[in-house]
């Protein structure tokens, strides 16, 4: 296959669906978590679940970087813009994530805060270069995929001696989140679901490779299949997982061989290692404090670290009491289990972060799955 439409071929999808039905043991149930929000979106958009047998269940995971961002981090960005007069730049999805006191970055902007959307970290650096009298902070988020570009602009800022530019780092790590899903103190409080395996993220794996997932296969006996984002990618990964479960195997397999290797992108990894180091702990929405699950800026780049530069003091803020985003991110509940879903909480008026990003489980389900579920009910 060479072209995108080949990965969306209906005839091939029907053939894969038939193969999955033939290989799935009707006497048992399968539960697979697609970690990445891109997979959640593809599964909802292309109706993949409609093609699966009833005993194969797909569970949404915490692989949406906007969804797992805790309220307290957004509050810090708003504080910088409203109280310090700093220009805060970030990706578009972040602007609408609910924060404290009924605010979001977008609503804070309406109150006079200088908060702007950018398409890349390089855009933020370019603004700081163009306007040296303006204090610019790039609110950086994302998993391993978006971390190298942030590291690069920090390198460039130091090389340029750009004193008016800094980064508020919110980059988080995929393997730590998977481990927390499988085993953490919060599991006893929020509950968990039995998982037979994972669909590993695509873009993240182009950076870190397939090797980091080998631990989960060996230690927890959970198979992992790395898959691309097209519907046929996802279906083939599900078939590979079913086959592993049937054969009592727990291995890391790579469906996305056209982009992912075992070692990953070594140059990007070296760049990230030079600029960032592990935090001892970082709060994730829905997962709580997760040890060694996020990155912070190393001491040689401290002059461009917004948290150090502005003395930011992080405080944890609880989510909306009626919002089930935390349980949904864990896979414990589905979007339709939330009383706010589709009524008070919509993409136009999100109560929780899962309804904001197009990769969020609630947004994907609202756009592509809610009417089918209601009809089935």
Order of helices and strands, N to C? HEHEHEHEHEHEHHEHHEHEHEEEEHHHH
Question: In which range does the helix fraction lie?
Answer: 25-40%
- Measured between the Cα atoms of the first and last residue, the distance is 39 Å
Strand order of the largest sheet: 2-1-7-8-9
Integer-rounded radius of gyration: 21 Å
pLDDT < 50 runs, ≥5 residues: none
Derived structural class: alpha/beta
Shape: globular
Proportion of residues in β-strands: 15-25%
By DSSP, the count of extended strands is: 13
Indicate the mean pLDDT. Answer: 91
Query: Mind describing the biggest β-sheet?
Result: 5 strands, parallel
Per DSSP, the total helix count is 16
Family: Belongs to the HypD family.
Keywords: Iron, Metal-binding
Organism: Thauera sedimentorum
Protein name: Hydrogenase maturation factor
């Amino acid at each position: 296959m060479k072209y995108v439409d080949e990965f969306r071929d209906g005839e091939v999808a029907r053939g894969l669906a038939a193969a999955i039905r033939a290989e799935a043991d009707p006497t048992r149930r399968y539960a697979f978590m697609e970690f990445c929000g891109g997979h959640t979106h593809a599964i909802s958009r292309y109706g993949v679940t409609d093609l699966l047998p009833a005993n194969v269940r797909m569970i949404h995971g915490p692989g949406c970087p906007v969804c797992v961002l805790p309220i307290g981090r957004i509050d810090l960005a708003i504080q910088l813009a409203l109280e310090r007069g700093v220009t805060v730049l970030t990706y578009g999805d972040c602007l609408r994530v609910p924060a404290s006191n009924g605010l979001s970055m977008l609503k804070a902007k309406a109150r006079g805060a200088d908060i702007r959307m950018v398409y890349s970290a390089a855009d933020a650096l370019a603004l700081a270069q163009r306007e040296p009298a303006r204090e610019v902070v790039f609110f950086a988020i994302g998993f391993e995929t978006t971390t190298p570009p942030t590291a690069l602009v920090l390198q460039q800022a130091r090389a340029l001696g750009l004193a008016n530019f800094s980064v508020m780092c919110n980059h988080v790590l995929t393997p730590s989140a998977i481990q927390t899903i499988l085993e953490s103190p919060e599991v006893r409080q929020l509950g968990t679901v039995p998982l037979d395996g994972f669909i590993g993220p695509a873009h993240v794996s182009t950076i870190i490779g397939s090797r980091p997932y080998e631990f989960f296969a060996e230690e927890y006996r959970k198979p992992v299949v790395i898959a691309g984002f097209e519907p046929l990618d996802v279906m083939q990964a599900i078939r590979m997982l079913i086959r592993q479960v049937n054969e009592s195997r727990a291995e890391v397999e790579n469906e996305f061989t056209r982009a992912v290797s075992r070692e990953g992108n070594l140059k990007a990894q070296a760049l990230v290692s030079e600029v960032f180091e592990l935090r001892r702990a970082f709060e994730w929405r829905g997962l709580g404090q997760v040890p060694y699950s996020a990155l912070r800026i190393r001491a040689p780049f401290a002059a461009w670290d917004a948290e150090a530069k502005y003395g930011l003091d992080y405080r944890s803020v609880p989510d909306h009491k009626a919002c089930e985003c935390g349980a949904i991110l864990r896979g414990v509940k589905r979007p339709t289990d939330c009383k706010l879903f589709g009524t008070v909480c919509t993409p136009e008026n999100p109560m929780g972060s899962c309804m904001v990003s197009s990769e969020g489980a609630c947004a994907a389900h609202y756009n592509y799955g809610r009417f089918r579920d209601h009809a089935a009910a």
